[in-house]
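Quick one, probably user error.
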């Protein structure tokens, strides 16, 4: 039996309703019943009240109340009748029951309607059947599924505007006839405490499901999102399908892309884009699109598409304000994949500072960089091996990418000889092409170091540049010396480089000592507990090797010295 996050299986429907009401000051429970009502019932005096099955569409501009059953079960006659009486006593000028076309719902709402009429209430019932799955619907007719939410919205906007029960009933029935929905799923779902409702193989998807976990009308191999959407729309609009929705080029529609409960937001966005593209290619105008979880089947990993043909009046009713929490806050405006993109901002051309510093000659810079690149490429496998114990085993690949990017860059133009410009240019190359957090960390280090070197190239300036780079890495990366990261090697080298600030210091000797410090610090990371980076999520007992980032930094410093 699949796992569920419930308190008790028997109380899960009541607990869910209690949570819904607790978090929404506009809602109240009806004592003794699974009924949620608007908090401001006196406001419906003289207006038509709207009641339906479960859901979160209660509020001004939508439903007056909802009556819930147990999971995937119709609400009881007694609860429907109690909801009708509650709104009648609040002074409603007529009551419309909006019922999804399932036998149990029709029976229970119908029985409650008959009893309420006997008590003198003016109650009507609209049965919504928007399912396009069955090419030849049986006696039960088309099932009521996600399109019902649009009916709630249209009826709610009309009621809020003061329309009569006759007018609402007539307009809602017309809207329901101009609507179709089709579901598609990659998985079944399961009622708490029960096994899944049906089985699907790993490579299968199911077309034409209902909203109670029941299987669909056709099983097929899993398709890419765009092909799956095309298949759905073709089935929904196929004239040989008795339950199809007629759509001709030039038609205006409202589109609902509904998560059946367990689809990721990523997949839902992809499906929504594919649906808009597919409809546009058929010459259909999408007046509005709603994307989200509107009518779900527990954790079913699937989606349904609803299309409603609309005119200007229906669009106005869809756009009308509502306080119902589940209705999305969408901007009024047409839907298209051809929306103009915001132009990318142009980078201002860099001014080449006319620095007169005595930077190393271009040929020397190329020699040093080539040594760094060869070192990193030779170490690729070693760094990957070190990274496997603590990360995702790609440290060598990442540094090799950096080496190849620097080589390409040197082939395309001679590197600048002025230190500040050289480091700044290298930062750009690594940020664009190295990837991973290492690319950003090196980019931060080099950018800050370059800023510190502007207008300077004396020996103490390099010590300052090293400190500035490390400070930037710490500020944004969050690591500190001793956290078993590349920072350990850098910090050890920087401490040694402070000697450059002493008059008469021999830069080459200091650099050689700094490289030794970095190598010793890299080796020392073998015995450290990771305090930052991906390795910090691994138990320290598994980290028996030195940190790959620290080893790479020590190797780079060594290559510069050679």
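Nope, works fine. Designed sequence:
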């Amino acid at each position: 039996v699949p796992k569920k996050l419930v308190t008790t299986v028997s109380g899960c429907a009541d607990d869910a309703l209690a949570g819904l009401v607790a978090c929404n000051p506009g809602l109240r429970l009806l004592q003794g019943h699974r009924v949620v009502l608007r908090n401001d019932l006196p406001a419906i005096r003289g207006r038509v009240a709207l009641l339906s099955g479960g859901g979160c569409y209660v509020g001004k501009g939508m439903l007056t109340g909802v009556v819930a059953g147990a999971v995937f079960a119709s609400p009881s006659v007694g609860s429907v009748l109690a909801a009708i009486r509650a709104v009648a006593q609040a002074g409603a000028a007529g009551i419309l029951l909006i019922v999804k076309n399932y036998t149990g719902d029709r029976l229970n709402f119908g029985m409650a309607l008959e009893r309420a009429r006997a008590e003198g209430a003016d109650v009507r019932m609209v049965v919504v059947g928007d399912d396009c799955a069955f090419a030849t619907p049986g006696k039960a007719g088309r099932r009521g599924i996600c399109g019902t939410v649009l009916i709630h919205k249209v009826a709610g906007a009309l009621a809020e505007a003061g329309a009569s029960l006759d007018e609402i009933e007539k307009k809602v029935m017309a809207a329901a006839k101009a609507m179709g929905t089709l579901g598609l799923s990659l998985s079944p779902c399961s009622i708490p405490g029960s096994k899944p409702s049906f089985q699907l193989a790993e490579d299968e998807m199911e077309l034409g499901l209902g909203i109670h976990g029941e299987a669909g009308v056709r099983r097929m191999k899993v398709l890419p999102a765009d092909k799956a959407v095309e298949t759905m729309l073709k089935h929904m609009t196929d004239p040989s399908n008795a339950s199809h929705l007629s759509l001709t080029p030039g038609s205006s529609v409202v589109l609902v892309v509904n998560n059946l409960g367990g689809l990721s937001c990523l997949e839902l966005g992809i499906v929504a884009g594919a649906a808009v593209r597919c409809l546009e290619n058929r010459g259909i105008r999408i007046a509005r699109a709603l994307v989200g979880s509107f009518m779900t089947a527990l954790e079913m990993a699937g989606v349904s598409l609803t299309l409603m043909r609309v005119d200007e009046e229906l669009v106005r009713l869809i756009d009308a304000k509502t306080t119902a929490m589940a209705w999305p806050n969408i901007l009024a405006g047409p839907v298209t994949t051809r929306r103009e993109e915001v132009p990318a901002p142009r980078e201002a051309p860099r001014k080449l500072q006319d620095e007169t510093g005595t930077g190393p000659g271009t040929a020397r810079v190329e020699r040093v960089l080539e040594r760094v690149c060869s070192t990193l490429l030779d170490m690729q496998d070693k760094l990957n091996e070190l990274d496997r114990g603590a990360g995702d085993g790609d440290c060598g690949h990442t540094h090799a990418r950096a080496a190849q990017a620097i080589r390409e860059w040197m082939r395309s133009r001679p590197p600048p000889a002025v230190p500040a410009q050289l480091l700044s240019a290298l930062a750009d190359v690594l940020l664009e092409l190295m990837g991973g957090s290492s690319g950003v960390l090196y980019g931060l280090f080099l950018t800050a170091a370059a800023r510190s070197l502007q207008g300077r190239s004396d020996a103490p300036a390099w010590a300052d540049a090293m400190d500035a780079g490390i400070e930037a890495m710490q500020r944004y990366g969050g690591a500190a010396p001793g956290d078993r990261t590349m920072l350990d090697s850098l910090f050890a080298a920087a401490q040694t480089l402070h000697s450059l600030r002493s008059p008469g210091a021999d830069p080459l000797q200091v650099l050689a000592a700094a490289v030794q410090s970095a190598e010793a610090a890299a080796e020392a990371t073998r015995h450290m507990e990771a305090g930052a980076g991906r390795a910090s999520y691994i138990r320290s007992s598994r980290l028996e090797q030195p940190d790959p980032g620290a080893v790479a930094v020590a190797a780079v410093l060594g290559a510069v010295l050679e």
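DSSP finds 17 helices and twelve strands in the chain.
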